[in-house]
Amino acid sequence: MRAFVPSILPLRLEGVGYAVGVKPLLSDVSLTVEPGRRLVVLGANGAGKSLLLRLCHGSIAPTSGRFFWADGSPRPEAQAMVFQRPVLLRRTVAANIDYPLALRGLSRSDRRAMVARTLDRFGLGAMAERPARLLSGGEQQRLALARAWAMRPEVLFLDEPTSALDPSATRIIEEMIESFSAEGITIVLTTHNLGQARRLAEDVAFLHRGRLIEQGPAAAFFAGPKTTEARAFLAGDLIW
Ligand SMILES: Nc1ncnc2c1ncn2[C@@H]1O[C@H](COP(=O)(O)OP(=O)(O)OP(=O)(O)O)[C@@H](O)[C@H]1O
To answer: In its keyword annotation, does this UniProt entry include RNA-binding (predicted)?
Structure first.
């Protein structure tokens, strides 16, 4: 079905800023999210990574600058966001996948097929009728990613998706992200975890105090960061 609709990517940000009152939290961010890539947004605590993702997703509006989605729409449907702590409904696992599909207007039979396909694809079938909020943290995040996948996004924004998880749950989530990527879904991910950034990033955007101070291919960034701040960050030094 998607073949007949124009792609929403690339997404271009031009001089995007976000301020609360007179305090700028993000300033003058210009960035292009290219289709089919895995972009990792890096930076210290408070650098503005989550804000940048929420702006891209459209859950908050910039106070300066502009966003251009390739299809010309202000906030396209074919994108989804998953948070560090998944926001799940007080319903079963299956109902959590079904609900956003219903909101999007899919017929009951299309939804039933998509829920079954999603449960099967991510090994969630045995938990289908369990209350989602009783799942472990790792299972909840698997469900949040599976639910996002069921919406057939072109781009998925992932805000620290594994920071509350142990290494084995993290591995499962990273494998899911790689499988999305292999299907052509564009990934924009924030992380504190340098190991994760090295494993997953094809491109890097490095934020420092609300400014995007480096961006480009991950290999070049990790091999030779250009700024003192990025060098210090990669060396594990405290920067502020
Ligand atoms: N609504 C808001 N009002 C005031 N300040 C805010 C608001 N939202 C975020 N901030 C501040 O903006 C800065 C950037 O926040 P953001 O959550 O984007 O950082 P981050 O890079 O994701 O950090 P972390 O890695 O700790 O999650 C922080 O100093 C935060 O306290």
So the answer is: no
